[in-house]
Write a structure and sequence with these properties.
Protein name: DUF309 domain-containing protein
CATH class: Mainly Alpha
Order of helices and strands: HHHHHHHHHH
Structural class: mainly alpha
Organism: Ammoniphilus oxalaticus
Pfam families: DUF309
Distance between the termini: 46 Å
CATH topology: Hyaluronidase domain-like
Largest sheet: none
CATH superfamily: TTHA0068-like
Strand content: under 5%
Length: 168
C-alpha cells in the first residue's frame, strides 16, 4: 500500500511531537487538494482535534469532535489507511467516556496495523528529531497553538476573497 506523504507527516506529529494542531493543518491541506474528498481524512483530523481540545481542557469540544468521527468512519476506510478498525473505535469510545468523567488528558497512540506504515512514520518522526510515542508536552505554546500562531496569511486570504466577492 502506498500512503500519502502528508498522512505519514500526520502520524509523525501525532505520535512524535504530539502537535495535534499541526496534524489538523497537514491533513486538511491534503484532504482539500483531492479531487474527491475522502471521509477518512476528516475522521483522522477529528481525532487530532478532539485530542487537542481534551488536552486544553475543552471537554465539550473534545466530546463533540470525537463523537463526530463515528458518522464518517467505515471499517474499509480505516483499514485502507493501515489502522485497526476495532481497536480504533474502542479507543475513541474509551476516550469519550474518560472525557465525560472529567479525566485529565492522557496520550493516545493510533492502532497502526501495517508494520510498513509504522516504519515510515517512525522514520519521519526521527527525521525531525522526535521520539516515537513521546509523551505530550504540556507547554502553552503547544496546548494553545491555535491562539498563538501567526494568522496574517489567513487574514490576507480572507480579505482578498472578500474583495473579489465585492467586485462581482
Amino acid at each position: 500500500m502506498h500512503y500519502p506523504a502528508d498522512y505519514i507527516k500526520y502520524l509523525a506529529h501525532f505520535h512524535g511531537d504530539r502537535d495535534f494542531f499541526e496534524c489538523h493543518e497537514v491533513l486538511e491541506e491534503y484532504w482539500k487538494s483531492l479531487p474527491e474528498r475522502e471521509p477518512i481524512w476528516v475522521v483522522l483530523i477529528q481525532i487530532a482535534v478532539g485530542l487537542y481540545h481534551h488536552r486544553r481542557g475543552n471537554y465539550g469540544g473534545a466530546i463533540k469532535m470525537l463523537n463526530s468521527t463515528f458518522t464518517r468512519m467505515t471499517k474499509a476506510d480505516v483499514e485502507r489507511v493501515g489502522l485497526d478498525y476495532h481497536r480504533l473505535t474502542e479507543m475513541i469510545k474509551q476516550r469519550i467516556e474518560a472525557v465525560e468523567q472529567g479525566e485529565a488528558y492522557f496520550d493516545l497512540n493510533l492502532p497502526i496495523s501495517d508494520p510498513t506504515l509504522e516504519e515510515l512514520a517512525e522514520a519521519e518522526c526521527a527525521a525531525h528529531g522526535w521520539s516515537w510515542f513521546a509523551p505530550s508536552s504540556m507547554e502553552d505554546a503547544l496546548i494553545h497553538r491555535h491562539a498563538l500562531r501567526n494568522r496574517s496569511d489567513v487574514i490576507q486570504a480572507r480579505a482578498e476573497k472578500l474583495a473579489a466577492n465585492q467586485r462581482r
